[in-house]
Design goal:
- The protein is α/β, with parallel strands linked by helices and about 280 residues long.
- The chain has two domains: about 5-160, NAD(P)-binding Rossmann-like Domain (Rossmann fold, 3-Layer(aba) Sandwich); about 160-280, N-(1-d-carboxylethyl)-l-norvaline Dehydrogenase, domain 2 (Orthogonal Bundle).
- The protein contains 13 helices and eight strands.
- The protein has an eight-stranded mixed sheet with strand order 3-2-1-4-5-6-7-8.
- Helix 12 runs antiparallel to helix 13.
- The termini are far apart.
- The structure holds NADP nicotinamide-adenine-dinucleotide phosphate.
Length: about 280
Amino acid sequence: MNFQVAIYGMGRFGRALAGALPAGSLARTGGRRDGVAAWKDLYRRGPEAFLKDLPGGTLVVLSVPDDALETVANEFATLPGAGSLFFVHTSGVRGPEVLEPIADAGAQTGVLHLLQSFPPDGGAGLIRGCYGVVEGGPELRACLSELAAGLGVITIELTDAQRVPYHAAAVLASNALVAMLDAGREMLESAGLPAEQAGKMLLPLARGTLHNVEKLGLHEALTGPVVRGDVGTIRRHLGVLAGDARRTYVAMMLAVADTAERSGRTPPNKLNEIRALLREQP
Ligand SMILES: NC(=O)c1ccc[n+]([C@@H]2O[C@H](COP(=O)([O-])OP(=O)(O)OC[C@H]3O[C@@H](n4cnc5c(N)ncnc54)[C@H](OP(=O)(O)O)[C@@H]3O)[C@@H](O)[C@H]2O)c1
């Protein structure tokens, strides 16, 4: 790459990106506080020190929480040299307009979102093969495309109207998946299974399911009582579940019924019976 990258906000995203960049292309890292151990040598406190003497054309990645973007954009916009840099934020739900104060200062601004879920550390290995959004004017987009290609990211383009549904879908595929596993774990523990076992035993099942989805597609991968039309099994589940567990189960089984319908594998009369049973639950 013939440009350097500077990352402001060394949380999950910032650390993953920093770890995945080609050797020699990380100019510096920064953020509002000192002391992120692994990046201490490069870490500079605050926007002013972070931006000082950065060569023009450096790509500044603002990987701060979505709701901090306005504040951070205003902090950078007034700093000397900001106008000669490229700035992107990493939010999936915000467009480039949130960086308008920096654009008004003369910088090219855009978005670099990666469709991945990063752990607190060691997320670099999850970047290759994931999808991502790059957005910006022609010169910035050329930089981002080169960066994305080097990282092995499959880039997609979104219209403004697609941005929020894209992010909502991502939240379902990642955050809701974690919540479902947690709800399952909670059911097992409430039924008296040892906590350690309850926390682990659903993971091979989830991995197997994702494997089937990848191999067979969503509709053929669906197994279980809804797609089979086993109403009696669902009645048995409802017979023992209570409280939050029951509420989660009912909401998710209605979503499973929608997938079963789209798969065309469940007789319509069975689907009707299942939906009626689920909807009549208090
Ligand atoms: N995590 C993911 O898997 C993921 C995936 C795709 C996109 N993203 C996007 O990446 C961005 C960052 O998410 P994240 O998960 O990396 O968050 P995170 O782990 O919470 O890290 C955010 C970083 O920003 C810093 N920060 C917070 N407010 C700030 C402010 N006002 N000024 C300067 N720095 C500030 C935090 O510093 P402190 O440590 O001092 O709080 C922290 O270092 C978000 O837009 C998110 O949507 C995240």
